[in-house]
TrEMBL record:
Pfam families in UniProt: Cu_amine_oxidN1, DUF3298, PdaC
Organism: Heliobacterium chlorum
Domain spans labelled DUF3298: 269-338
Domain Deacetylase PdaC residues, every copy: 160-250
Identification of the protein by name: DUF4163 domain-containing protein
Record domain Copper amine oxidase-like N-terminal: where: 38-137
Database matches in InterPro entries: Cu_amine_oxidase-like_N (IPR012854), DUF3298 (IPR021729), Mao_N_sf (IPR036582), PdaC (IPR025303), PdaC/RsiV-like_sf (IPR037126)
Length: 349
């Protein structure tokens, strides 16, 4: 495989680790509920992901479906949201925002099956696994009426491939707040590119001098909207660089902002005092004990500048590649339910 193709696949694999959801062994049937009511169809676990029949989920979540036989593509439309998928392909687009799936839509017994979590969450529905009943629970959530447009910067030659995507907001009540937030989002990717492009060019020269051929360096920036409710919006970013070697390096970061005031929140800003720390520490320690079998180092406590984002399910703290775990684990993420934190928080969720 050509080096450029390899590095893009590595970047995509790291990105998709946050998209999928595993609920059981392959071929098992998973009951589906919406707002507490059990649906007349079930999900199917394939490749460690829960898939649902496209026709059934479209009727449940009230979106229209367009099928193009020649391209084997599926277009899902609900309000201003448009999702484009392809049978048997991992690439997917949400309002022009390019993402990757780690399990592809498939045709089974003449029916199209699509990944439940990705479809539901991108159409304003929370997805939660209920371990006691082995059920996937869907909950309608009232997202803020903010228009999020995807901006792209893409260029590439034989030396460096650049693909940058970043969000811009429209429809905020205060134009000054909107301008400031958009500036922050744009400056974030500009800074990452500026800080790494020189290093990549230097590495390229060194590799060429050492006799390496057909080397393509890369910068790839992407994001997800994790929360958009109650006047707050939370973004999760993954920034990837490839400078030679077996694989590149991806860095995770996040931003949580108040769409009324423009305030950018650190983790301590969300709480009245430091009493949240032991609660999060207990949950993280339990996660590492139960899920991480070969940690690189032991977890003791989160720092004050701990990385986090908001989600409909709870506050999510996450850790970088190699911070505590081997590369194969990706970015460990731990969800702390809001019910454990509500009385300590300074914001309403």
């Amino acid at each position: 495989m050509h080096k450029r193709s390899s590095l893009l696949l590595i970047s995509a694999a790291l990105w998709t680790s946050a998209i999928g959801t595993s609920y059981g062994s392959d071929s098992s049937s998973v009951p589906i509920q919406l707002d507490g009511t059990t649906m007349p169809f079930s999900g199917r676990v394939m490749n460690d992901q829960t898939f649902v029949p496209l026709r059934d989920i479209s009727e449940l979540l009230n979106f229209s479906v367009k099928w193009d036989e020649s391209s084997q593509s599926i277009t899902l439309v609900k309000g201003s949201k448009e999702i484009l998928l392809h049978i048997g392909k991992a690439d997917v687009s949400v309002n022009g925002h390019d993402l990757f799936l780690n399990s592809t839509p498939e045709i089974i017994d003449d029916r199209a099956f699509v990944p439940l979590r990705f479809i539901a969450e991108n159409l304003g529905t929370e997805v939660k696994w209920q371990p006691n009943t082995h059920t996937v629970a869907l909950r309608s959530i009232p997202e803020s009426p903010i228009l999020i447009s995807n901006q792209k910067e893409q260029s590439g030659d034989s030396d460096i491939s650049i693909k940058i995507q970043y969000p811009q907001l429209d429809g905020l009540a205060d134009p000054t707040v909107q301008t400031n937030i958009n500036r922050i989002l744009k400056e974030r990717v500009d800074s990452f590119k500026k800080n790494n492009i020189g290093t990549l060019r230097e590495s390229l020269v060194e590799l060429h001098d050492a006799g390496a051929k057909n080397m393509t360096m890369a910068i790839d920036c992407n994001y997800e909207v994790k929360y958009n409710q109650n006047g707050l919006i939370s973004f999760f970013f993954r920034d990837y660089i490839y400078s030679g070697g077996a694989h590149g390096m991806t860095y995770a970061s996040s931003l949580t902002l108040n769409t009324t005031t423009g305030k950018v929140y650190s983790l301590p800003d969300l709480f009245q005092d430091d009493s949240y720390v032991p609660i999060i520490n207990r949950t993280v320690s339990q996660y590492f004990t139960e899920q991480i079998h070969e940690p690189l180092s032991g977890f003791t406590s989160i720092p004050r500048d701990q990385n986090f984002y908001l989600s409909p399910e709870g506050l999510v703290v996450y850790f970088q590649l190699y911070e505590y775990t081997p590369y194969a684990y990706g970015f460990p993420e731990v969800v702390i339910p809001y019910t454990d934190l509500d009385s300590l928080m300074t914001i309403h969720l």
